[in-house]
Specification:
binds zinc ion, 25% strand, Rossmann fold, two-stranded antiparallel sheet, single chain, alpha/beta, 241 residues
């Protein structure tokens, strides 16, 4: 069975901004879903205006990896849905948080951060993503750096807990640097934060960026589901008696 991916997008900029709609006529989620389908994943999309944001118990129960893009209305995401996503991550669902998703309720809950601190600027800067973990599954098949001609600038300090793995570090034309690809594990779930993807640039149409997201889905998908013993237990080794 192919890996089941749900792409969540707040789906707002595309509805009121001509430029963004021109780049993503089917929404950012539509573009991401299309290249994932082409890579043979089984894909569903969810948007914030849907009932329960499209992230019902049923949808999440049949999701191996959830992708999250949001920017303007993080605070309108229901706490009940956030709790539900959190529980699924603990059980082993992979989570890929894109771009401004760093400020989402779910990412902040998982990271234990209470700020959305980073510096940012929209000045059409060039971004160069440098691979700093060349043997990692997420960079499989890529060159050692990727140039994005124009992107929103994000800069340090980025308020995240120490990443378990640093995959990319970005440089911007203005001189800033940013930890643009990082992983953590929470419970049985794997989490990848990936910075590129400001809505007014065609970044999710770039082949290299698509490759990274596909690789990240493969990496984050649960490979097995071990049953864990908990609470008071008898001595596991009989010979110890
Ligand atoms: Zn942005």
């Amino acid at each position: 069975m192919s890996i089941r991916v749900t792409v969540f997008n707040e789906y707002l900029h595309e509805t009121f901004d001509e430029k963004v709609r021109g780049i993503y006529p089917d929404g950012i989620h539509g573009t991401i879903a299309a290249f994932l389908k082409e890579a043979d994943f089984s894909v569903t999309t969810a948007t914030q205006n849907m009932e329960e944001h499209g992230l019902t118990e049923e949808v999440l129960a049949s999701t191996d990896v959830l992708i999250w893009w949001a920017h303007l209305i993080h605070d309108k995401v229901s706490d009940e849905v956030v709790e539900r996503v959190y529980e699924r991550v603990m059980e082993g669902m992979g989570l890929i948080v894109l771009h401004s998703g760093h400020a989402s309720k779910i990412f902040r809950k998982l990271m234990g951060t209470h700020t959305e601190r980073l510096r940012w600027r929209e000045s059409d800067d060039k971004e160069i993503l440098y691979v700093v973990n060349p043997s990692h599954d997420i960079v499989n098949g890529l060159a050692d750096h990727i140039v994005i001609p124009h992107e929103e600038t994000y800069g340090e300090y980025f308020d995240i807990p120490e990443p378990e793995e640093q995959i990319f570090i970005s440089w911007y034309e203005g001189g800033e640097v940013f930890r643009s690809g990082c992983t953590w594990r929470r419970g049985k779930g794997k989490i990848f934060y990936f910075k590129p993807g400001h809505e007014s640039y065609p970044i999710y149409h770039m082949k290299e960026i698509q490759k990274i997201i596909c690789n990240a889905v493969l990496w984050a998908a649960p490979k097995h589901n071990m049953t864990l013993t908990e609470g008071h237990t008898p001595i596991p080794m009989a010979e110890k008696k």
